[in-house]
């Protein structure tokens, strides 16, 4: 699971880790994120992080800045569609 400024973005580690060495290393057991299964981003632009995950899932990203990251689960992200919690 990813937390972007407190917004839950459930992701598939098998999808993001195979495409990104950063995420592959972050989710290794040697790190807190690997043990907890949660990677948190509180600094920087929520929209920029959103685009990273959008790109990892679709191979593209939107230039639309209307996504609101304040206290919601990001259900319109391609990585969440069809997600079973």
Order of helices and strands: EEHHHEH
Cα-atom radius of gyration: 12 Å
The total of helices stands at 4
What do the pLDDT scores average to? 78
- Sheet with the most strands: spatial strand order: 2-1-3
- From the spread of the alpha carbons, the general shape counts as globular
Task: Please report which band the strand proportion falls in: under 5%, 5-15%, 15-25%, 25-35%, 35-45% or over 45%.
Answer: 5-15%
Distance between the termini: 11 Å
What is the strand tally?
A: 3
Taking pLDDT < 50 over at least 5 consecutive residues as the criterion, the unreliable ranges are none
**What structural class do helix, strand and pairing data support?**
alpha+beta
Fraction of residues in helices?
Answer: 25-40%
What does this structure look like?
This protein has 85 residues and is α+β, with helices and mostly antiparallel strands. It has a domain at 2-58. Helix content is 36%, strand content 11%. It has a three-stranded mixed sheet with strand order 2-1-3.
